[in-house]
C-alpha cells in the first residue's frame, strides 16, 4: 500500500514537472497536447517499474495516462511480485519498486544504507 502511494506520488511529480503555465499576458499557443508537451517539458527516457502483480494494473493505468501527456517518456511496468520489485529497486535494475505489503526488516535496511 505504501509503495503504491509512492508510485502515485512519483508519477504525479513527473507530471507536475512537465507542465508549464503561459504568462498571464500571453495567449496560449494553439498546439495539440502532445506537441505542447514535447516542446515544453523536455522529459524523455525510460522508467522501469517492477513489482507487485496486484499493483501492476494501477501502475499500468498511471503509466498510460502519463505517457499520453509526455510522449517522449516510456514507462515499462512489470508485475513479477513484491519481493522482486523491492530487490529490483534496491539493485538499480528498476527505477520504482512496487510492493503490496510492508517492507521486511532487511529491505528497510537497504533503504537506510542508500541514504
Summarize the structure in words.
This protein has a single domain (2-17, 34-114), classed as 3-Layer(aba) Sandwich (D-Maltodextrin-Binding Protein, domain 2), CATH 3.40.190.10. It is globular, with a radius of gyration of 17 Å. Helix 1 runs parallel beside helix 3 (56-69). The longest helix has 17 residues, at 2-18. It is built from 5 helices and 3 strands; from the N terminus they run ααβαβαβα. It is α/β, with parallel strands linked by helices. Helix content is 52%, strand content 15%. Strands 2-1-3 form a 3-stranded parallel sheet, with helices on both faces. The two termini are 22 Å apart.
Q: Could you give the topology of this structure?
A:
Elements: H1 2-18, H2 33-41, E1 45-51, H3 56-69, E2 73-79, H4 82-91, E3 96-98, H5 105-114
Summarize the entry for a quick read:
With 115 residues, this protein is α/β, with parallel strands linked by helices.
Determine the structural class based on helices, strands and strand pairing.
alpha/beta
CA-CA gap between termini = 22 Å
Radius of gyration: 17 Å
Counting H and I runs of at least 4 residues, what is the number of helices?
A: 5
CATH H-tier superfamily:
Periplasmic binding protein-like II
The shape, in one word, is globular
List unreliable stretches of 5+ residues.
1-9, 12-32, 34-38
Mean pLDDT: 77
The secondary-structure element order is HHEHEHEH
In CATH, the topology is named D-Maltodextrin-Binding Protein, domain 2
Instruction: Write down the oligomeric state.
Output: single chain
Give a quick account of the main beta sheet: strands, pairing sense, barrel closure: 3 strands, parallel
How many beta strands in the DSSP annotation? 3
Overall tally of structural domains: 1
CATH architectural type: 3-Layer(aba) Sandwich
Amino acid at each position: 500500500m505504501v509503495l503504491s502511494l509512492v508510485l502515485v506520488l512519483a508519477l504525479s511529480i513527473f507530471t507536475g514537472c512537465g507542465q508549464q503555465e503561459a504568462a498571464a499576458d500571453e495567449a496560449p499557443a494553439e498546439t495539440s497536447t502532445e506537441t505542447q508537451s514535447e516542446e515544453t517539458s523536455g522529459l524523455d527516457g525510460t522508467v522501469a517499474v517492477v513489482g507487485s502483480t496486484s499493483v501492476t494494473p494501477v501502475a499500468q493505468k498511471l503509466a498510460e495516462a502519463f505517457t499520453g501527456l509526455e510522449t517522449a517518456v516510456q514507462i515499462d511496468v512489470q508485475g513479477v511480485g513484491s519481493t522482486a520489485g523491492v530487490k529490483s529497486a534496491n539493485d538499480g535494475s528498476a527505477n520504482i519498486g512496487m510492493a503490496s505489503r510492508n517492507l521486511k526488516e532487511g529491505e528497510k535496511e537497504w533503504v537506510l544504507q542508500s541514504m
